[in-house]
Write a structure and sequence with these properties.
The chain is of the alpha/beta class. Helix content is 44%, strand content 24%. It has a seven-stranded mixed sheet. Helix 4 (126-134) packs antiparallel against helix 5 (141-156). The longest helix is centred in the middle third of the chain and has 25 residues, at 65-89.
């Protein structure tokens, strides 16, 4: 099986993403991971059988919601281009997208149209995280927009993974 994982994270520092990828590679699957790059890291590297493509450099320096959102959007666009090109060369059987952000799942539009399966792995519930981090009301426009994005993202995916039953209940509501 050929698998792509997309995660707005530093691969080596994210145990959850790494464990999924390494388990698949150990099983004999071909695994590509699309992730962030830190200073001094190679753009492409094979780690324990996993091909890691670091498509965007990131330093954690965001001072506003807008600068953080802009970096997420750039990563989304780069992921979309990367996955589309890779899909056209040799099709993925599965694309496993780790949120945050939820909308990153739409980077798998070309594989989805080509009948690849798409998993959305929700690590954190974005509307609740946003409300807590920025002191937003549950009825605020920002939270309502994030709920809509979360719903659309979950509907787009063939399967959704959540961290626990409490988040599953919130997501189902």
């Amino acid at each position: 099986m050929k698998v792509c994982m997309i995660a707005y994270t530093f691969y080596e520092m994210d145990n959850r993403v790494r464990r999924y990828a390494e388990a698949l590679a150990q099983r004999g699957d071909k695994v590509d991971v699309v992730a962030l790059r830190q200073d001094g890291q190679a753009r492409t590297e094979v780690l324990k059988g996993v091909r890691v493509f670091r498509i965007q450099h990131r330093t954690v320096t965001e001072k506003s919601k807008l600068s953080y959102f802009a970096k997420l959007c750039v990563f989304f666009l780069r992921s979309l281009v990367f996955v589309t090109r890779a899909q056209l060369r040799e099709a993925y059987d599965l694309v496993h997208v780790h949120s945050i952000p939820d909308f990153l799942v739409f980077a798998a539009i070309v594989p989805k149209v080509a009948r690849s399966k798409v998993i959305l792995d929700i690590h954190d519930l974005v509307p609740e995280l946003y409300a807590t981090k920025f002191g937003a009301d549950a009825d605020s426009l920002g939270v309502k927009m994030l709920i809509g994005i979360e719903r659309a993202s979950a509907r787009f995916a063939d399967h959704v993974i959540v961290a626990n039953h409490i988040w599953q209940e919130r997501l189902e509501q």
